[in-house]
């Protein structure tokens, strides 16, 4: 008789179970199924496990594995018996297995939905979160194979393993019998298990990035023997930035007797370095990188910054070279920034790391910055540097990452780091592509709830070298979804910096009400008009006239800030001719002191050709004009004495303001200032709304299990299918979405019979693809109240459009008059499940007036979805029309959201038209498409992007 252990050949190797994961300490490991070829690895792994750990696993002394044990633990059928291993460098560091059991606790197969699970982790790797990662993956495998419950028996002294199970967040039962703790838990994800998984993911990925950004030692591989070249330049940049850690220069071409390069210890190989190396910056030709990666991996390097080009950006051969690079690095547990990267920067006082091609260390500050493109990274650093010396003063960056081809470390990883980084208050990102929009949206929503996230997003065309999931959603839809996640979406790097500097310097506005004051009536009016264009609510500008003094500005700003009807203030300033113009530093201090008295409201300055004011605003503190201090950017400088002629020699004040002082951002154009302010207003409103996001309601009449059975039966007939009208009505009906019956009318007599069955009045519709939902073409006849009208309409349709078999006419009972709308839900391979709403016809088809939300949709999101389209006034009594039943529409949206969220097999739903009447909403047409669910999704176990 054939045993399950001998059935491995019956089941194809499940390659989709392979995954790279980030561990608790930031290192990486690979998880994969155990096969018959792993016998030697298993024996070697077991020999490195302590006797105590073996005892905890087998409940008795078990010094070595027998041949029978090795056979049993390496032969699996991948259904009833499964083993997974966590590996580093190709060697096992931990294993987990499950065996399906029946109600009697004995091995079983088929319908049994319970399994015993057991782990073993090498002592050297305990405490790294390996078992927790393995539990997530073995649970996902078990669910895929129809197992719904795990049982584990653990010795009471094995507290670490008990904690792995109890901390996982699953619903558990615990018992104690015969000296053994028995744990049983359901594998269905719970809110708590998902929260635990996401928290572990965040901590692990943040630590993996932290190890790259704050290394204790750095080796630059590829340092030239003569000045110049990438490697030598980066080495110099690290030295000049004041990096306090150990620094090494590596080049295999160095003479054996060479001890130093530019005062840095020189080595021919990473292997020759005494002591650990945390970060290696690789600047060698692409063909030499594999040897460097192997050296680094064997030496225990934690991460790589690969500046070398010649990878996926260069074509198919380079793309394969890039895949090999990632596989090699992950085999050693290393993470990679790059290849083709610009580098990374950390301005923290204890780090001072400039491992990049930027020749100057940026000013320290509170802005975290990520750019995929090296060219854009250079532009952003340059823009901030210029603004830092003038408009923005001490506002600088905390950390900067330019990931190049982002083969491994991506914007998602860096977001995980910045989420709880105490040194970063604002995040700026330039994203040419988003490799995993579903995860990015999830992380962005959480990050934006804590700190502003400003993004310039590419148009969707992936540059060479970027591996991205294909999306079927328009670029505008993806942008809308990002905004709903709290992302501040801007179009240019100028807007990126403008918004970032405001958010880094000023509090969030409490609302859209804006006060405008200044010494130029024209500039004030221009600012007023821009506020209106951006949807803000400006008050009439206060003109202080060109003769306004610093005291006048102070008094006017103080009055505006004290006004309860004002949420923010824009100050406009132009230079005046003659002695009436206040000195720049004096005006800056006047504005600063007035703003400091009401610190809860943002203040912006629009200046025209007033560079001295911009610099003074950057430097001005609460010190009175005339105080001495240091000039920004210099080590020692004494401020000049006040000039005899006002405005000719601005007074320089301390660069570092007192704790809690808000720096006032200044802009050279009204439209730039107002655009930044408008983004801050919208973001502030999102923050307030996010505090109460609503709930996903429960509906008592939903038959989730019945829908699951129906979907299973339908999918059993094919890989993917569009449901028939009858099947669509049945499935939607289980979620409380009735569809009005439409009876086929292939002949006039059939139309009459259908109308009698449904009851008059009826509608006659042509459903051929070219006429469907095209009432404008005349393919629909409404309000047919008797047989005579029906037959006349039937004749008109056939005369206009052809034979009945070409028209596919149907008869449907009339719905109450209302507004025709359309509801759609799709599963996008990149963004996930998206619910969309708009008015039927030209508004949605021609103008693209649709609003979108990520599923599951809450009650508040459904309300906002209905009101987000430009044509929403038609639903609420526009021009004296009767308002329609929007609560009924919102309930319909929530039910469709629940359907696609509960059943990932439902990949597309279209309800068109949905007629929303003054009382109720009627679905007149519906289509549903099913497909097998994805094996893994964002709710599955933690994984790194596959390569």
Q: Could you walk me through the main structural features you see in this protein, from its secondary elements to its overall organization?
A:
This protein is an alpha/beta fold. Helix content is 34%, strand content 22%. It has 27 helices and 39 strands. Strands 1-2-3-4-5-6-8-7 form an eight-stranded mixed beta sheet, with helices on both faces. A seven-stranded mixed beta sheet has the order 11-12-10-9-13-14-15, sandwiched between helices. Strand 27, helix 18 (611-619) and strand 28 (666-667) form a beta-alpha-beta unit. The protein starts with 18 loop residues before the first strand and ends in a 17-residue tail after the last strand. The model is unreliable at 1-10, 389-393 and 621-659 (pLDDT under 50).
Please report the distance between the alpha carbons of the first and last residues.
41 Å
Q: What is the typical, i.e. mean, pLDDT?
A: 85
Taking all Cα atoms into account, the compactness measure Rg is: 33 Å
Helix fraction bin: 25-40%
């Amino acid at each position: 008789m054939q045993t399950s252990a001998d059935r491995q050949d019956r089941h194809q190797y499940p390659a989709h179970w392979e995954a790279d994961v980030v561990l608790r300490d930031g290192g990486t490991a690979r998880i994969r199924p155990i096969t018959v070829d792993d016998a030697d690895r298993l024996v070697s792994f077991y020999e490195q496990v302590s006797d105590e750990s073996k005892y905890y696993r087998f409940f008795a002394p078990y010094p070595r594995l027998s041949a029978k044990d090795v056979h049993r633990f390496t032969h699996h059928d991948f259904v009833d018996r499964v083993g997974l291993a966590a590996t580093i460098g190709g060697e096992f560091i931990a294993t987990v297995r499950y065996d399906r059991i029946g109600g009697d606790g004995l091995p079983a197969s088929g319908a049994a939905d319970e399994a015993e699970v057991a782990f073993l982790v090498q002592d050297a790797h305990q405490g790294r979160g390996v078992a927790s990662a393995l539990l997530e993956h073995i649970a996902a495998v078990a669910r895929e194979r129809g197992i719904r419950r795990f049982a584990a028996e653990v010795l009471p002294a094995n507290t670490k393993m008990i904690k792995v199970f109890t901390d996982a967040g699953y619903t558990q039962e615990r018992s104690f019998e015969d000296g053994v703790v028995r744990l049983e838990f359901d594998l269905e994800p719970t809110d708590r298990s998902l929260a635990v998984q996401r928290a572990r993911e965040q901590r692990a990925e943040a630590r993996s990035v932290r190890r790259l950004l704050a290394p204790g030692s750095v080796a630059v591989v590829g340092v030239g023997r003569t000045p110049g070249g990438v490697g030598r330049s980066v080495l110099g940049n690290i030295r000049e930035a004041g990096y306090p850690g150990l620094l090494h220069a590596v080049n295999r071409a160095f003479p054996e007797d060479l001890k130093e390069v530019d005062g840095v210890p020189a080595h021919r190989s990473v292997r020759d370095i005494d002591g650990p190396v945390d970060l290696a910056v690789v600047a060698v030709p692409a063909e030499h990188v594999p040897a460097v990666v192997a050296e680094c991996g064997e030496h225990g390097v934690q991460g790589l910054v690969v500046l070398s080009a010649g990878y996926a950006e260069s074509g198919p051969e380079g793309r394969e070279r890039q895949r090999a690079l990632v596989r090699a690095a992950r085999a050693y547990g290393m993470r990679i920034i790059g290849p083709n990267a610009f580098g990374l920067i950390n301005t923290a006082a204890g780090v001072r790391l400039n491992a990049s091609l930027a020749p100057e260390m940026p000013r320290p500050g509170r802005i975290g910055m990520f750019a995929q493109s090296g060219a854009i990274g250079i532009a952003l650093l340059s823009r901030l540097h210029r603004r830092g010396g003038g408009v923005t003063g001490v506002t600088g960056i905390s950390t900067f990452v330019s990931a190049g081809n982002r083969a491994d470390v991506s914007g998602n990883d860096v977001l995980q780091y910045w989420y709880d980084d105490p040194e970063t208050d604002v995040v700026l990102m330039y994203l040419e592509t988003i490799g995993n929009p579903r995860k990015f949206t999830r992380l962005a929503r959480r990050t934006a709830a804590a700190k502003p996230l400003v993004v310039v997003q590419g148009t969707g065309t992936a540059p060479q070298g970027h591996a991205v999931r294909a999306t079927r959603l328009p670029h505008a839809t993806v942008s809308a979804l990002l905004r709903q996640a709290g992302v501040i979406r801007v179009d240019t790097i100028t807007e990126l910096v403008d918004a970032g500097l405001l958010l880094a310097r000023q509090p969030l506005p409490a609302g859209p009400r804006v006060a405008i004051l200044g010494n130029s009536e024209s500039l004030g009016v221009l600012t007023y008009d821009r506020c209106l264009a951006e949807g803000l609510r400006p008050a009439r500008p206060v003109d202080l006239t060109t003769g306004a003094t610093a005291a006048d500005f102070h008094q006017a700003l103080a009055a505006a800030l004290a006004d309860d009807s004002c949420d923010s203030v824009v100050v406009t300033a132009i230079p005046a001719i003659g002695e009436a113009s206040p000195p720049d530093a004096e005006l800056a201090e006047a504005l600063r002191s007035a703003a400091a008295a009401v610190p809860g409201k943002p203040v912006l300055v629009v200046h025209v050709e007033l560079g001295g004011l911009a610099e003074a605003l950057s430097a001005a503190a609460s010190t009175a004009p005339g105080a001495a201090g240091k000039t920004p950017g210099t080590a020692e400088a004494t401020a000049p004495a006040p000039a005899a002629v006002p405005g000719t020699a601005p007074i320089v004040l301390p660069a570092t303001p007192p704790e809690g002082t808000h720096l006032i951002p200044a802009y050279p154009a009204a439209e730039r200032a107002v655009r930044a302010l408008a983004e801050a207003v919208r973001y502030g409103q999102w923050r307030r709304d996010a505090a109460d996001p609503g709930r996903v309601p429960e509906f008592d009449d939903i038959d989730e299990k019945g829908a699951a059975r129906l979907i299973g039966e339908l999918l059993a007939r094919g890989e993917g299918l569009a449901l028939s009208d009858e099947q669509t009505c049945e499935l939607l009906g289980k979620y409380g979405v009735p569809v009005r019956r439409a009876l086929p009318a292939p002949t006039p007599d059939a139309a009459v019979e259908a109308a009698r069955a449904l009851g008059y009045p009826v509608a006659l519709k042509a459903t051929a693809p070219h006429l469907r939902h095209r009432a404008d073409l005349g393919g629909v006849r409404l309000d047919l109240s008797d047989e005579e009208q029906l037959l006349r309409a039937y004749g008109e349709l056939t005369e206009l459009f052809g034979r009945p078999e070409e028209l596919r006419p149907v008869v449907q009972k009339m719905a109450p008059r209302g507004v025709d709308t359309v509801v759609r839900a799709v599963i996008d391979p990149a963004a996930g499940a998206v619910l969309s709403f708009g008015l039927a016809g030209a508004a949605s088809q021609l103008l693209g007036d649709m609003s979108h939300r990520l599923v599951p949709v809450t009650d508040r999101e459904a309300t906002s979805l209905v009101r987000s389209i430009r044509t929403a006034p038609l639903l609420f009594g526009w021009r004296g029309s009767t308002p329609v039943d929007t609560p009924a529409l919102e309930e319909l949206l929530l039910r469709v959201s629940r359907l696609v969220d509960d059943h990932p097999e439902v990949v597309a739903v279209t309800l068109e038209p949905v007629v929303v009447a003054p009382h109720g909403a009627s679905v007149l047409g519906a289509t549903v498409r099913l497909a097998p669910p994805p094996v893994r999704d964002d709710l599955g176990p933690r994984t790194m992007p596959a390569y």
